[in-house]
Structures are given as structure tokens and as C-alpha cells.
Amino acid sequence: MNVRLTDDVYLDLRSARDWYDEKQDGLGDEFADLFFTIARGLPNVLMHHSIDKTGYRPTRMPRFTAVIYYDITDSEIIVVGVLVNGRSSSALRNRG
Question: Which of 36, 57, 90, 95 could tie 80 with a disulfide, CB 3.0–4.6 Å?
């Protein structure tokens, strides 16, 4: 099953990467690398994550205070957002 990232995810990633780089030089790159590792692995664990109140399946990123949200269709996994530092999940409305 293919994994597709929405345009919003790239905006979320850029924002999160910048935020983590402000905390420590290079931490943003580590965040992005981990994000892509987890996203590529979603086909192997996708049914382990239940749909939450957002209507999407969340998976927490180890080491970082971030959550990846995704949806599953018949043909692909669609990553709709990655929220950092308690950012409200209401930011996910109208995505996907």
C-alpha cells in the first residue's frame, strides 16, 4: 500500500522542523528523518492505530512531542498532518 503526504503535511513539517531547530541546531533534521521513517512504515502497523475524535488514526512520534495523523483508503494511506507541542487537533479539519 502506498503512503501519500498531503500538501498540509509539508507545511506542518516545515513549521515543526524550524521549531525544533530553534531549540537545538540539527534537531529539526532529526525530527524530519524520524517522521519519514515512521510514514514509510505505516503500511506495517496501520491497523494498530484506532480512529480518534479527529476522524483520523494518530501515531505518536517517539522522542518528540508530535503526533502523525493519517487515513486509510482502499488503495493508499494518506498522511494528513503532523502536529507538534499540543497544537490543537482542530487544525486537522478540512484536511485529507
Answer: 95
